[in-house]
Structures are given as C-alpha cells and as structure tokens.
Amino acid sequence: MSATKVGVIGCGYWGPNLLRNFAENETAELRWICDADPARVAAMGRRYPAARTSTDYQKLLADPDLDAIAVVTPVATHFQIAREALLAGKHLLVEKPLTATGREAEELIDLADRSQRTLMVDHTFVYTGAVRKMKEIVASGELGELLYFDSVRINLGLFQKDINVLWDLAPHDLSIMDYLIERQPDLVSAIGSCHIEPGIENIAYLMMHFADDFIAHFHFNWLAPVKIRRTMIAGSRKMILYDDIEPTEKVRIYDKGVTTNRVGPDREADYQTLVSYRTGDVWAPKLDSTEALRHVVGEFLDSIRSARRPLTDGQAGWRVVRLLEAAQQSIKNGGQVQSVQ
Ligand SMILES: NC(=O)c1ccc[n+]([C@@H]2O[C@H](COP(=O)([O-])OP(=O)(O)OC[C@H]3O[C@@H](n4cnc5c(N)ncnc54)[C@H](O)[C@@H]3O)[C@@H](O)[C@H]2O)c1
Prior knowledge:
By secondary structure, the chain is an alpha/beta fold. It has helices at 15-24, 38-47, 58-61, 75-87, 102-115, 129-140, 165-181, 292-305, 314-332; strands at residues 4-9, 28-34, 52-54, 68-71, 91-95, 119-122, 146-156, 187-193, 203-209, 215-221, 223-235, 239-243, 251-263, 272-283, 338-339. The mean pLDDT is 95. It binds nicotinamide-adenine-dinucleotide. Nicotinamide-adenine-dinucleotide (NAD) binds next to helix 4.
C-alpha cells in the first residue's frame, strides 16, 4: 500500500512535534512543510530535506498528489485553512481547539461529511497512556456511580497574545472529561480575570452542572508559582487521582469513600444518618509511555486508510468548542449561568 502523503502547515512551537511524528511513521510520507515565516520553514526544511517547503499553504492545496494536511497554526486561522483544505479534497488533522466558534466547527463537520474526508482534532491528552487507562477503569464501572470531575491546570506562562487561558488550556481537560464520562453538561458558568493583558483572561474558574448530581470544576491559570496538572474523578466506590507531573505513577486509584445508612427515627431527628468511612488500598496501574502524538498521527493515518471516523472526530472537536464558547460568554456576563442545550 502506498504511503499517505502529508503536509504540515505551521511550524511554530507545536508543529515540529507533528512533523517528527509524521516523518517517523512508516505509513506516511512527509511531502510538504509550510509556515508563513520563511526562517521557520527553512529550519524545518533542513531537518527533513526530502520534503518540499513553502510559505504559502495554497501550494499544498494545489498539489493533487497530497492526501492529507495537518493545521498547526493559531486558533483564529484554523477555520479558514481547514475549510479551504477540505474544499481541495484533503483529509484533515486540526490542532485543538478545532475552531474559534461552534458554528465554524459545524461547517467543517458538514464539509468533511459531504466530501467524505477524514476530519480529526488533535485532542492530544485522549491519546496518553494515563487517560486511556483511566477510560478502561471508568468504563469497567469500578468507580461506582460517578460523582464529580475536578481539574487544575496551572503554571507560570506561556502567555498567549491571541487567546485567553481558557481557550489555551481548557481544551485539554474538556476533551479528557468528554472522552472519559461521555456526558454533556446542561449548564456552564465561569469567572476570569485579566491581570497582564487587557481583555485576555490569564485565570479562569469553570463550573459545569449536569442533569443529575454529577458536577465538574476546573481551574486554569497562567500566573501560578507552581506547575500543577491534577484531576480527581470521584465515584461512589473508588476515586482516581491523575497527576500528569508525576514521572511514573501518574494515575492512582483510591479505594476510599463513605457509606451512609439511615437509621431511626429517634428523638432528635426523624432519621439519623450514620456515616462510615472506608479507606482501602491505593494502586497505580502500569501505563503505556508511548508519546501521545505518535498515537494521534497513527489514528489519523489509519482512519484515512480504513475510511472510518477517528476517535477524536469533528464532533468531539465541536463539543469542546461549544463548551468553551459558553464559558467565555459566562465570563463576559460576570459568571452568569449559560445553557449549553
Ligand atoms: N495539542 C497540544 O498539546 C498543543 C500544544 C501547543 C499548541 N497546540 C496548538 O497548536 C496550534 C499552534 O500553536 P503554537 O503554540 O505552535 O503556535 P505558534 O505561534 O508557536 O506557531 C504557529 C505557527 O503558524 C504559522 N502560521 C500562522 N498563520 C499561518 C498561515 N496562514 N500559513 C502558514 N503558517 C502560518 C506561524 O508563522 C507560526 O510559526 C494552536 O492551535 C495551539 O492551540 C496544541
């Protein structure tokens, strides 16, 4: 079978990681490297001399032998480049977040469906060994009834000029939650503040309310003294702590919880609730340590070859973008609850 011919648009901070993974994949041929900045494209061209280079992505669209394109440019440019690439008949991998608005995401999904092209979003964390192991555990029902999802992703910098902390960091945690629990909230509320750049929030707190008692909370921050990437998923029987900073034991499962028994009636109250605490074992499963982007690129190429939907398809990208939009609207309205139905 001939290799899938791939072009990468955008060789800034993240693009070189995709270039490397496409170059290393035996089912792909890295055919084009593109960046609007001539110095960047030249530097990558020296690293991969067999690939053609250009500062103009139209060259890639016009190449009839090019099968697929990865868009690794700033978020505001995703839609236009992705739309043109789909219209040119290319399969598409777009960086997170898929687009800057839900409407744009819907249009890309529609275009990809009509032209029968693969549309995939790079929700990188979904392809990590840690998140895939957590998916197995959640899907097995071992945690019991799911109660809450609580995530913190904070560090110092990298301040972005074009997007706020929510659009930069939240796609990671929202895509992880989307993949693990497969449920959508009814309501979203968020607050944030701009301490450095006017109009660009560098800190945000996000809450999600679901139809039942399940609840989710997120903290994103570019102005923190320490780097923390920690998620707790609590179930009625067991709880998971996912610490991405931990070098090896990133996922720990705690056999902890409380059991309540209602007894009574007695004199003080109609019923008395007896709470008993359960503290059992803690274990850390062995995780696949393969670089997540290797799986991302593998999934993209395989979904093209087998004409199937990728795990993180356009719909997954759209679900994350519409939550970001609702959260952004809530921040704008001073934390007002937004419906996402
Ligand atoms: N999946 C992840 O973990 C992850 C991590 C970092 C960034 N990202 C995503 O990757 C994308 C790029 O982020 P970055 O940090 O690399 O940004 P960056 O600013 O470092 O790089 C973007 C590059 O795109 C180029 N570019 C812009 N417009 C272009 C155009 N029209 N044609 C050709 N080249 C163009 C710029 O010259 C620049 O080199 C963003 O969508 C971001 O959200 C994803």
